[in-house]
Amino acid sequence: METVTSFLSIDEFLQLPETQPASQLIDGQIIPKVMPQGEHSRLQYKLCSTINEVAENNRIACAFPELRCIFNDNVIVPDISVFRWKRIPKTSSGRIANRFNLYPDWSIEILSPEQSQTKVLKKLLFCSQSGTELGWLIDPDEETILIVFSEQKIRLLSGQEILPILSELDLSLTVNEVFSWLNF
Q: What is the pTM of this model?
């Protein structure tokens, strides 16, 4: 169950100790993430590895699970954040930075049984309004994926429909292919 507590500034929130699962700051409210379960973990792992297989070796993009993104006075932790290679923050020595003070290019959320679809959609819409090009809301129970485009256009996909991907990636997935990863 999601709970909401307190109203904090981003500076106050960033002074708090880390929590497990992660906490987010959305519109001044602390919103803890839901602890992932089997389907969620499997989809998160397979999506990250599938995206990174085509994106990371070619230095096009990189998918990160549970990465804290800080932008527009909010702190969000998408289930998967995909950043184009040139936007990945780096230190002066060229190593990946620990802090990502920017929005992802592609944000993916996987709905858990106890999560509010509206709250998760609100987070994807916030990302879209802030500059995120593509959002996915994966619903394992319904076997659908809701797509949020940068212009706030929303589309619901199912079955053999091909999913939109960042344009530079040579990857083609259908909704059914994504959900097939849940079968062993």
A: 0.89
